[in-house]
Design a protein that fits this description.
single chain; alpha+beta; three-stranded antiparallel beta sheet
Length: about 160
């Protein structure tokens, strides 16, 4: 028998702040980023998933956008240890999950996404959950979307 497990994406405000301070420090000193380093953009924030179980199969995404806009969710690889190293572009996983609500969409219309990419992305997260207790993501908010207007989670089937 299998059960469903819905995991909410939670903002990691401390890690977001550390990454913003890195950008600010480089700017103040007039330095450039390390070769291959991925700096946090102003419209991005770090979110996390905490896995309470490891044996998971991807089921579906739940993304709600309160107004028109675009949310891009990019996962980081298990090789990134935020407390030890800067984020490098090679540590970003593909595909990203892209979700949007167009101006003129009805309030009750489902959020749109690139379904094949979103499904593959969910399956990759389930695979990484087998070896991780926590996973970090970059959320990029665009076209009117903001952290205050987004609610997102991912649902898995728990293998028993």
């Amino acid at each position: 028998m299998s059960a469903e497990l819905e995991l909410p994406f939670r903002p990691d405000n401390d890690l977001t702040e550390v990454m913003r301070l890195r950008v600010q420090s480089l700017q103040q000193r007039g330095q450039k980023r390390q070769d291959g380093e991925r700096l946090l953009l102003p419209n991005e924030a770090v979110y996390r998933l905490d896995f309470s179980k490891q044996s998971l199969r991807f089921s579906h995404w739940t993304v709600q956008l309160a107004q028109p806009g675009r949310l891009t969710i990019t996962a980081t690889s298990q090789l990134w240890t935020p407390d030890l190293t800067n984020l490098m572009t090679r540590q970003l996983l593909e595909p990203a999950g892209v979700f949007w609500r167009a101006p003129g969409d009805a309030d009750d219309a489902p959020v749109q996404c690139y379904e094949a990419d979103a499904h593959e992305f969910g399956e990759r997260i389930a695979e990484l959950a087998k070896v991780r207790k926590v996973m970090y993501f970059l959320f990029a908010f665009g076209e009117g979307c903001s952290p205050e207007t987004v609610d997102s989670s991912i649902t898995f089937t728990v293998d028993s």
